[in-house]
Design goal:
The protein is an all-alpha fold and 378 residues long. It is 79% helix and 0% strand. It is built from ten helices and no strands. α1 (2-62) crosses α4 and α7 (219-240) runs antiparallel to α9 (271-309). Belongs to the two pore domain potassium channel (TC 1.A.1.8) family. This is Potassium channel domain-containing protein. It is a multi-pass membrane protein.
Length: 378
Amino acid sequence: MVRFFSPHVMLIGSVVLYIIIGAVIFQHLEGENLMKVKKEHMSNIDKFSEAYTDKLWDLAKEKEGEFEKFEDLLAYVKSETTQDFNDYVDTVFWAHRAVRHGYDEDSPTWDFANSVFFTTTMLTSIGYGYVAPSTFGGRLFGVIYCLIGIPLTLVTVANIAKFLSETIFLVHYEIWNKYMEWKRKRKGETDSDPTQPMFADDENEEEILDRVRLVRFPPLVVFSLVFIYGCVAAWVVRYWETWTYVESLYFIFISILTVGFGDIRPSPGNVWLTLAFVLVGVILTTMCMDVVGRMYLKEIHYLGRKLKSNNPFYLLREAKARRRRAAMASLLAQLAKGMIFAHKDYNELARKKSKKKKEKRRGSHVCEFELALKFGAF
């Protein structure tokens, strides 16, 4: 059990540590710069607003007696202060663009919680965008951080989703197996012998299809699980956010599908709970895509093979390939057979040669003995 869970725990721990380290670095790189930029833009806004209001007041006082009607005075003041008003609006616009939502009452800052929220949503490819690095160092680090962190996070999410899908499959298998046992007992049948084959010859098609459904996980169950989770999460989130249920439902599903438009954002005080709901939803969505994708990928491959089998040119190529393979197999068999026979002939020839040599040696010894007797050597 420890060996089974240790790789999963190490993978999750490495991602959590990577997120925390990235959050601390982003907080250091962007935190002080955000406060500095906010002060500069607020100073510009104050300057242009004071200039605009002072000009309005001065013109209204100077030209008060020159116009009989108030509407004429108002039109004159408006025409004279149009450029000042446009400068003021541009200052506010550029301040909002530079600091995003930084001037709201609950504006996000680069504190630890928001930094963790930013790095997590960035690595899961959600990327809401209402908080983003603005310095050169922060942007450069963000690119390098994503190059390493996104593959690591996706592998971890896929690993957890795979574990959940296998767990749900086992639960589904056990439930269906219990149902099949109850069905057999209801029909008065005995439990099947585990040593028997899975599909017996005397089984009809309905029984075989029931066995096949044991190992085929219904996609509707997975989609229903994700949908129910999204509805429940939206119902919970709306209680600590000032959203309607439709807005909460929109935010949850946009987040767990990793779209993340960023038009609706959670308040800084609820970052941790919202992040937990989003991460669980991302894992469930990945599990759903994994289960359904594997199932229909096999069916697509089967359909491709069926389409190929109905193609006459494919049939001709397959027939030629089968003939070539058969000819090659026959040639290899003949070659192997010839090598075996040649080996046998060589062994017999070697035995015959060795026998002849022994006979010659024996004959030479007899001749030498006869010569010795003849000439009186003994």
